[in-house]
Amino acid sequence: MMKSHLLLVLLLCVCCLSQPPADVTEQCPERILGNERRRICSKKCLQDEDCASKRQCVCDGQCGLSCVAPGRPCPWPLPPVRHAEVTLLTPSPVFSALLEVRCHPGYTTANGFSTTIRRCQGDRQWSGDEPVCTGGFPAAEPVVEPEIHCPMPIDGLLSVQGSAGADALVHYRCGPGSVLVGHSENFCHENQTWRYPHPICQRVFCPSPVEVDHGYLVAVQKSEYNVNDTIYYLCKKTFLLDGPNQATCQSNGTWSTMPSCRARCPIPAQRSRVIVGGVKRWPYDLTDGMVTHGEKVTFFCKHPEKQCSFTATQTCYDGQLSAPTCYLDPTWFQYKLYPHRLVSEIVSCDPAVLA
Ligand SMILES: *[C@@H]1O[C@H](CO)[C@@H](O)[C@H](O)[C@H]1NC(C)=O
Ligand SMILES: *[C@@H]1O[C@H](CO)[C@@H](O)[C@H](O)[C@H]1NC(C)=O
What we know:
four-stranded antiparallel β-sheet
């Protein structure tokens, strides 16, 4: 049942296809007013007799059956269309001739087709709008060479300056607290390999800080210290801190200046006054008879010929303070019996005498 039905349909189709166009009126669309698209339709007709001489009643697209002079041509050749080839599909550009506008690969017309057919109308114009082929599709773009890049290092501390593209030179830098080990420059070859292996940024540590004699660290001792770690020093009692009270781990893995703890100096004079801190005093009046590191002590010396004194100054350096060579400590006898004749108590020599 189904089969015979199908056969009938097929037969019917073949019949209508093989049938000669019985009447043009059946195939030609009715002229719809207002639908002419900027064209002037010729006189409406049903047969040639309706038209003036040299005109025929033919189907003119949306104008429907119209009186057309068939030999009159449409403009040809047309000005070139950008991104397209324009080809006449019929021998001459006369009425009902067809031309094809084929956009270049990757380009299409506004309606999205790559090809548009235009027909030469009775008004001697090509049907449809002037096609515009627009692109921007991948195939239309110039072929882009895949970019050649050398692999970049994966090291948070290492930074690369310059392009990693082929035939390019780059410079490496290490972040704070690390030093570069290896080549600081590199070159990316065409085959996407580097001339040298990437360098390494090695973290910088400072070793445990050295002990300071007569001092101690005011910090938690660690086995290694990072750059910028700071430690503090204190000196033991009676010792004077010489230098900064702190040391910092430097970017090259060394400690900044370490302080020293300097000892006080005993004054090598007992039975004669000295000048300490601008004050003339007996050594035993000073704490422990000592002066601190760096302090100046002025001694009184006796002129070899005159009964007058002159001074000589020495400086305490880390427990070492020697009396000037001209100084002679009075004997206990002199000190006890003739205190006013002690070298620190007699008159000062006239500067002229010393000159
Ligand atoms: C150390 O301190 C200096 C100055 O404050 C700074 O520039 C540097 O980045 C620091 N380094 C580290 C490893 O923190
Ligand atoms: C480490 O760096 C400091 C300051 O930048 C410098 O004074 C010292 O000489 C350097 N030490 C070494 C061993 O390079």
